[in-house]
Amino acid sequence: MESPKPSRADCVTDAFAVMGITSSAAITSLGASGMLFACYVQTFFKFGGVMFMTISPSFVFANCYFMPLLAWVGPEGTFAATATRPTGRRRWRPSHRTGGAGLGEQAARGRLY
């Protein structure tokens, strides 16, 4: 999803609003790994440690470093926006005029339409 707002800070606010639900998934995963720390079986305890040490830095990086970085130096306005209309390049589609030739043969003959 692209934000219709022109400023960087507004775009970051929109991103937090749309993608904020993924933060709750990270928090619940951290809670699950916390429960694994209470296990006596070393396999579960170590798996909880791996989960915790994987999810917590990624959560901190995404929310406390990357998003503020985007608010500071991220794209603004229509810079780096994806195309919203066709670029004019036509796609290959099979028809009776091509004789059923593949895309490579069509490109070699210059018959992409």
The percent range for helix content is 55-70%
Task: List low-confidence stretches.
Answer: none
Tell me the distance between the termini. 30 Å
How do the SSEs run, as a string of H and E? Answer: HHH
In total, the number of strands is 0
Relative strand content: under 5%
Describe what you observe in this structure.
It contains three helices and no strands. With 113 residues, the chain is mainly alpha-helical. It has a domain at 8-73. The longest helix is centred in the middle third of the chain and has 32 residues, at 42-73. The mean pLDDT is 77.
Entry summary:
With about 110 residues, this protein is mostly helical.
Annotation keywords:
mainly alpha; single chain; 113 residues
Question: Helix and strand layout, with pairings?
Answer:
Blueprint: H1 8-36, H2 42-73, H3 103-109
Helix pairs in contact: 1-2
